[in-house]
Amino acid sequence: MAAIDTLLRSMLEKGGSDLHLTVGLPPKTRASGSLVPLADKIIDAPTMESLLKEICPAKRWTEFLERKDLDLAHEIPGLARFRGNYLYNHWGQAAVFRQIPAKILSFDELKLPEALKKLCNLDQGLVVVTGPTGSGKSTTLAAMIDYINTNLARHIITIEDPIEFVHPVKKCVIVHREVGEHTASFAAALKGAMRHDPDILLLGEMREMETIKLALGCASMGMLVFGTLHTNNAPKTVDRIINTFPAEEQNQVRIMLGSCLAGVVAQLLCKRIPKGRCAVHEILLTHEALPNTIRSGQIANIKSIIESGGSDGMITMDNSLMNRVKDGTIEPKEAYMKAANKATFAPLLKPGDLDEGGH
User: Fold this and answer.
1) What H or E segment, with its residue span, contains residue 7?
2) Spatial separation of the C-alpha atoms in residues 303 and 163, rounded to whole Å
3) Rounded to whole angstroms, how far apart are CA atoms 157 and 196?
4) In the chain, where are the structural domains located?
5) What strands, in cross-sheet order, belong to the sheet with 34-37?
6) Whose CA is closest to 96, among 63, 67, 134, 139?
7) How far is it, in rounded angstroms, from Cα 215 to Cα 221?
8) pTM as predicted
9) Residue among 51, 93, 90 nearest 70 (CA)
10) Separation of alpha carbons 262 and 124, rounded Å
11) pLDDT of the chain along its 359 residues, tens only?
12) CATH architecture group of domain 3-100
């Protein structure tokens, strides 16, 4: 057993989601949103190198020493998988490991909006699942792929850094590819995927301009492409995609995006009553006004499209938050902290709520 497995097992026993390793500090885990020590012993530099190197393939370790950053997956067979990020900081080598749930949760188990099934049943287009780091994007995407795998016969290629959820064989043929292990880059894997007859592509993250450009190209060619970004709502997602490109290319990108954008699912995690967390969503689906809105650069009008599309399953983040307050899932203060229009939620606050860290 690898030495780091002892720390990972201890993390799981404490109900932690992330393991933080830094030279000069004891190992810590994030449990119920707070960082707590796992042990008293401080990690020194030789111990850190030993912990990290033991579970890293030699080729990837050389890559880490050169680039100073590395993403990889680690598994404790029969227990759990973990997504690891190696890095250098002021004190030397460091790492963060996040648990990947062993079980792929279903739509019903996650209580995902029914509108997301519409996106799963599409034949082509670009679907972006977006939200801050740690908001559960990968878990939601895994549930969507599982729904497709259960109900449809499709050829799915996932391109991730690293591979997170490994899907069992059901109705689909699913090929998992890991950047750095099975392919040099997201862009290289996307170029190759065009020749592999996929119905669906899943991109772990649309990080760079070339990757986004290829994703748009694949969606325009008749594939269904799922990707992730780190934005908070649908209009910002569209802006982010367009603004990734230089000014002279943005008009062409608006035309491509307008023709192939099939949906945006923005996700946030909120503290559930009495404990745990729940997801809230902003959902943008295809609409006759959407292509021209994007092509003309009137991105602010996307909010109006969402507000008018409630009967189709579209919803703004603030309305989603309000629904969770009304059904008693989250506190008004939690909704207020996450909301774009805080004035809507201010009358629901209890006396003293804003004195406890609200703004």
Assistant:
1) helix 3-13
2) 34
3) 9
4) 3-100, 107-315
5) 34-37, 28-31, 18-22, 92-100, 80-89, 69-76
6) 134
7) 10
8) 0.86
9) 93
10) 8
11) 899 999 999 999 998 989 999 999 999 998 877 899 998 899 999 999 999 999 999 999 999 999 999 999 999 988 888 999 999 999 999 999 999 877 899 999 999 999 999 999 999 999 999 999 888 899 999 999 999 999 999 999 999 988 889 999 999 999 999 988 899 888 899 988 888 999 999 998 898 899 999 999 999 999 999 999 999 999 999 999 999 999 999 999 999 999 999 999 999 999 899 888 899 999 999 999 999 999 999 999 999 999 999 999 999 999 999 999 999 999 999 999 999 999 999 999 988 787 755 55
12) 2-Layer Sandwich (3.30)
**Which residue is listed with tokens 């190198």?**
49
Which single residue is written with the structure tokens 């307050």? 325
Show the tokens assigned to 329.
Answer: 């899932």
Q: Look up residue 8 and give its amino acid.
A: L
302 Rama class: left (phi>0) / alpha (psi -120 to 50) / beta: alpha
**Residue 59 CB: number of other CB atoms within 10 A?**
10
CA 168/CA 150 separation, integer angstroms: 10
Answer whether CATH 3.40.50.300 is correct for domain 107-315: yes
